[in-house]
């Protein structure tokens, strides 16, 4: 790995390192707040721009789906042309597109700007990780820095609903995007002065064909799920999209093994531990994405809470994620990833099951308890997913494992919003009254429960001692 001379050589090394870490943390907090804060703003966006439920789904899914498609590519591009360069480009794109989102005159334009915003966001998380690894040469300091950085991701995801609710209530839905602009601008300026340029001595080859196949696979699948209730599940468009997604998967499986450095190497899925972590992440974060989407509309459209009140109602979930996220790291260190994965999946499943039968009660106590348990479960799952993915591959592929684990979380959130939103859309008038909302909401909670239970089953099977021994 080659690193250019520090940009600000007169600044003491520890101060420069701390500033670099702060810039990287601010960038990923901004990008991850955006994945959850916008959920709380969806009803206000729909009212302000006249969007449909499908439009609301796309406002969220367009961002997470684009992230899922481009995270690995952006990391490879940074290794090739320079991490500081790509990081700065990501910040600039994120700032400009955030401003464009706030000025959107229709849901269609907002969705388009969200895609551009996610292009910038894809250049932040994986590249920030690489920058931190290059700046903190001492292994002990690097581990602590990565720990702080990882915690900031959880803080961003957990705090998003509260921040979003406050901004929408106090200013309007546009403020959810305005807030990104000054943060990105300050981070961009600091990056220029304190972040050294670095590249990989052996950057991965770019794989444009594999990239297009991944975009086709995920894009067509999510499009079919979101648009199915509106266009008809058996319509030519819906069936064609499902078929196109399957064709892209078949082509990717045939093409990737023949590429010297494919975007996604199917051979990594021979590891039961890695495959298990990948699937668990999709299941758990599909549950989380569906959870946020379902409760956003339940709290604001059915219970008639204000955006701030709705955001505060989700505070127990955010607080539990904040507390149990770091706790999962200690649990992995002391008891192993299997224990943390099991505990997280059990808590999330129990919470979803409780909420299935109590969410529409007259009081909020059980609702808030369910939210807290669900947040604790997801928080416990976050660290062991990455730990299991990294442990499931040789050390030389640790970066690939961490990148794909992050990608799988974004895939999960996209699918969760698509599936839960389609369940609601399949019941016309579901958002007009509590009685009409109850049937699709029950189906939604049952689906979330099933996703968490499936994550538990996969966790127990993929981390079983015989599976680990077989890999070794």
From TrEMBL:
Q: List the InterPro entries hit by this protein, alphabetically.
A: EmrB-like, MFS, MFS_dom
Q: Does the keyword Protease apply?
A: no
- List the keywords (alphabetical): Cell membrane, Membrane, Transmembrane, Transmembrane helix, Transport
Q: Which domain of life is it from?
A: Bacteria
Ranges for domain Major facilitator superfamily (MFS) profile? 20-467
- Protein location: Cell membrane
Q: Check the UniProt entry and state the signal peptide residues, or none.
A: none
Q: What is the first-listed, main subcellular location in coarse terms?
A: membrane
Membrane topology, from the record: Multi-pass membrane protein
Instruction: Give TM regions.
Output: 55-77, 89-112, 118-136, 148-171, 177-196, 208-226, 232-253, 274-294, 306-327, 339-359, 365-393, 414-437, 443-461
Q: Entry's PROSITE patterns?
A: MFS
The family assignment reads: Belongs to the major facilitator superfamily. EmrB family.
Report what the protein is called. MFS transporter
Source organism per UniProt? Nocardia iowensis
């Amino acid at each position: 790995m080659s690193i250019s001379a520090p940009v600000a050589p007169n600044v003491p090394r520890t101060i420069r390192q701390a500033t670099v870490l702060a810039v990287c943390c601010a960038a990923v907090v901004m990008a991850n707040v955006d994945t959850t804060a916008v959920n709380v703003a969806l009803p206000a966006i729909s009212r302000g721009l006249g969007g449909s439920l499908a439009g609301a789904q796309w406002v969220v899914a367009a961002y997470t789906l684009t992230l899922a498609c481009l995270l690995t590519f952006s990391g490879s591009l940074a290794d090739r042309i320079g991490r500081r360069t790509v990081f700065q480009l990501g910040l600039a794109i994120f700032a400009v597109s955030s401003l464009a989102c706030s000025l959107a005159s229709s849901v269609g334009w907002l969705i388009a700007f969200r895609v551009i915003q996610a292009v910038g966001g894809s250049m932040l998380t994986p590249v920030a990780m690489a920058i931190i690894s290059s700046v903190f040469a001492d292994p002990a300091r690097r581990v602590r820095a990565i720990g702080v950085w990882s915690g900031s991701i959880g803080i961003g995801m957990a705090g998003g609903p509260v921040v979003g609710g406050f901004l929408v209530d106090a200013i309007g839905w546009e403020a959810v995007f305005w807030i990104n602009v000054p943060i990105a601008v300050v981070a961009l300026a600091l990056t220029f002065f304190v972040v050294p340029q670095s590249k990989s001595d052996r950057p991965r080859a770019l794989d444009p064909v594999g990239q297009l196949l991944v975009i086709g696979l995920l894009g067509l699948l999510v499009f079919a799920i979101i648009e199915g209730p509106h266009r008809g599940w058996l319509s030519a468009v819906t069936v064609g999209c499902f078929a196109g997604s399957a064709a892209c998967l078949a082509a990717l499986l045939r093409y990737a093994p023949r590429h010297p450095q494919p975007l996604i190497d199917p051979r990594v899925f021979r590891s039961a531990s890695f495959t298990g972590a990948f699937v668990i992440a999709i299941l758990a974060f599909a549950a989380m994405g569906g959870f946020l989407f379902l409760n956003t509309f339940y709290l604001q459209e059915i219970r008639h809470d204000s955006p701030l009140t709705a955001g505060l109602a989700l505070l127990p979930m955010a607080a539990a994620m904040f507390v149990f996220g770091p706790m999962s790291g200690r649990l992995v260190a002391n008891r192993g990833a299997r224990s943390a994965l099991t505990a997280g999946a059990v808590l999330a499943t129990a919470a979803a099951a409780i909420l299935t039968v109590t969410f529409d009660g007259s009081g909020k106590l059980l609702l808030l308890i369910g939210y807290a348990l669900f947040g604790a479960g997801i928080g416990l799952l976050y660290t062991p997913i990455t730990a299991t993915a990294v442990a499931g591959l040789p050390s030389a592929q640790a970066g690939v494992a961490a990148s794909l684990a992050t990608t799988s979380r974004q895939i999960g959130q996209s699918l969760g919003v698509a599936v839960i939103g389609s369940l609601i859309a399949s019941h016309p008038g579901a958002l007009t009254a509590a009685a009409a909302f109850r049937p699709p909401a029950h189906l939604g909670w049952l689906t979330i429960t099933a996703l968490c239970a499936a994550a538990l089953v996969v966790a127990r099977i993929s981390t079983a001692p015989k599976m680990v021994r077989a890999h070794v």
